[in-house]
TrEMBL record:
It comes from Hazenella coriacea. The active site is at 91 (proton acceptor), 335 (s-methylcysteine intermediate). This is Probable dual-specificity RNA methyltransferase RlmN. GO terms for biological process: rRNA base methylation; tRNA methylation. CDD domains: Radical_SAM. Specifically methylates position 2 of adenine 2503 in 23S rRNA and position 2 of adenine 37 in tRNAs. The keyword Ribosomal protein does not apply. HAMAP family: RNA_methyltr_RlmN. It is found in: Cytoplasm. PROSITE patterns: RADICAL_SAM. Keywords: 4Fe-4S, Cytoplasm, Disulfide bond, Iron, Iron-sulfur, Metal-binding, Methyltransferase, rRNA processing, S-adenosyl-L-methionine, Transferase, tRNA processing. Its main location: cytoplasm. Belongs to the radical SAM superfamily. RlmN family. One of its GO terms (molecular function) is tRNA (adenine(37)-C2)-methyltransferase activity.
């Protein structure tokens, strides 16, 4: 199958151009047409010779995404369900914050990790996305925002799928959106979240860049984490923490731990104390997330007061903690819900 135009980094465009007897600076023109002018066909690339445009359309597919549905929340959150060329569907979310607009992208169709609180994993993994299919999500979001003259400021790789099980495409995606000749999204404005694929946390720490890392932790001990997240049997908590310490020492950056509070499971004060002891001394931020209701899983939400009690315990261990503001409550905001609904209907 032909690659998508968005699959290529600037370096790959340079190589492609020189292998097609073109000057390397043509690669800059490609970046400009694709990511600055954001055209949607080769015909619009008016400063490229016609013969080159014909060669490009022989070699590449242009648009990998169709909009199936768009849901808009009263709080400004927008959730897209996109159709892929092979009939699969994926979700992408635009979120509005005080500090700007972020886009949450998906890296796989479905997921095989099996976290018990997550709708994305219910049908298992269908396939990995290419870097271009991930880039196209940001571009689609940007085109939507173009109508109101707004701009994507940050990108979080926290949608469906485990990015570190699709490592190479995720890394290439980051290089493409970070390129100053293109979308120019700063490395410090990009965060990747992993459920704990330990070997790739080491690789990520060695990438030598400023991209942020978040770990989906969700439990303070081996037994409970294995119950909630089967990946914890493959990569035990102690190994995960070793990798986190390596990341902190190697990068000097702060690490984020995501902790979804699930009523009666991991939200007791004893869990907060265990978590406090586990993370004490680390340069980290704990992000407490009131778990979204997933009809297929019988989980209850933690009350607001209990969330604040949990946070106070972490404060006592001098651990920076935030409580995630809930967004898109009036739409299918939990990751995987919209896609799950769509596949039941189709
Ligand atoms: S939370 Fe992330 S890693 Fe876990 S099953 Fe859902 S999509 Fe996969």
């Amino acid at each position: 199958m032909k690659p998508f135009v968005y699959d290529y980094t600037h370096e790959q465009w340079k190589q492609w151009m020189s292998s097609h007897k073109q000057a390397e600076w043509r690669a800059n023109q490609m970046m400009d047409w694709l990511y600055v002018k954001r055209v949607q066909s080769f015909d619009e690339m008016s400063n490229l010779p016609k013969t080159l445009r014909a060669e490009l359309s022989e070699a590449f597919h242009f648009l990998p995404l169709d909009v199936i549905t768009t849901q808009q929340s009263k709080d400004g959150t927008v959730k897209f369900l996109f159709g892929l060329h092979d009939g699969h569907a994926i979700e992408t979310v635009i979120m509005r914050h005080q500090y700007g607009i972020s886009v949450c992208v998906t890296t796989q169709v479905g997921c095989r990790i099996g976290c018990t609180f997550c709708a994305s994993t219910l049908g298992g993994l269908k396939r990995n996305l290419t870097s271009g299919e991930i880039v196209a999500q940001v571009l689609k979001a940007q085109r939507f925002l173009d109508e109101t003259d707004e701009r994507v400021k940050s990108v979080v790789v926290m949608g469906s799928g485990e990015p570190f099980e699709n490592y190479d495409e995720t890394i290439r995606f980051i290089r493409i959106i970070n390129d100053s000749r293109g979308l120019n999204i700063g490395q410090r404005h990009i965060t990747v979240s992993t459920s704990g694929v330990v070997d790739n946390i080491y690789r990520f720490a060695d990438e030598d860049w400023q991209v942020g890392l978040a770990i989906s932790l969700h439990a303070p001990n081996q037994e409970l984490r294995s119950n909630l997240m089967p990946i914890n049997r493959r990569f035990p908590l102690a190994q995960l923490l070793d990798a986190c310490w390596y990341y902190l020492e190697r990068t000097g950056r702060r690490l984020t731990f995501e902790y979804a509070l699930i009523g009666g499971k991991n939200d007791q004060l004893e869990h907060a104390h265990e978590l406090g002891k586990l993370l004490q001394g680390m340069n980290c931020l704990v992000n407490l997330i009131p778990v979204n209701y997933v009809p297929e899983r019988d989980y209850t939400r933690t009350s607001r007061n209990k969330i604040f009690d949990f946070k106070r315990v972490l404060d006592s261990y001098k651990i920076s903690t935030t409580i995630r503001r809930e967004q898109g409550h009036d739409i299918d905001a939990a990751c995987g819900q919209l896609r799950a609904k769509h596949s039941q209907l189709s």
